[in-house]
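seq as requested:
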Amino acid sequence: MIQGFDATCLRHDGAYPVLLNGHLQPRPSRFNFVACSGDNFPTILQKQLKPSYMRPRWGDRPEFVTLSMGGNDIGFKELVTLCVYSIPNPMSPLMDCADAIARSQRLVNSPDFVGDAINVIISILRKGADTGVPNLKIYVTGFAQFFNERTTQCNSVNFRPEWLKLMLKPKQYLTVDRRRTLNKIARDLNAGLREAVMRASFGAPNRVFFIDYDRAFDGHRFCDRVEPNPNDVDTWFFTYGADQAAIGDFLDSIPQIHDVFSGHSNRTMSYDTLFRLVLDATADDKEKNDMLVGLTRIFHPKLDGQRAIERRLRNVVLATRSLEVPTSTTEVSES
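struct tokens:
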């Protein structure tokens, strides 16, 4: 870990579960942070709940679990890269923004989405029972809408990173219609998670809770003010800086990435492979590790956003947990 940042799973000490654990002090707490960026429903089950794959291992007799999931299962990366940054999908170079939107809409509104989310929740409850905690509580956090969709000042704005030196798609503009469409997908995602929590709660009353923090981000979304402005402290989501040529040079220096994105070959690459190549190239290099942070944190909440999520989560946890039970928490998520 470099300065509170775990490069393998992109965990950091400013994440809301870490902040929550700090606010539950001074009572003794055993905190296990097993979240891993890029995980989806299957990999949460395969890697975060099975002892042979734990990162780190599941805590002993946890009192409650915070759970973030769903974004990677509906194509979050493709929506952001294609519809906001105009960066092609390395696995499907011909995919465009309209394809990504149609795919995400289909996935988030599929009955399979709710069913898979329920399966994760039930599996965690069973994991709790297997470790001697039959009354384990789960707090499922939702997602915030990214854009102010009422203003017109973003209609001619695009976030395409010209410094990236990779094969870029035509510029995508953040029109009112585009922002409404992307926000609607976020609302549908929350609705699916809320339904999964409700249905999972039928067999586990007062043990599974949905945390909706979207309104806390009012006034702090993209397009609330002039864009693009990556240094705007009042916008609670990260974006790329206007001039990060060093990152462009760094990515272009990795031969496999250059081949895929230069347009000179027919090769494709999964996001996992892309991430591993970048991770290997940043190993033990503080400057390059900072580049990795900049590449991967886009559209994730900044510290003020994490604090807002933590406050909402903490209010629900304190209102629903038994104060007599010793604290032990586990964070599970896709990130």
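The CA atoms of residues 70 and 156 lie 30 Å apart.
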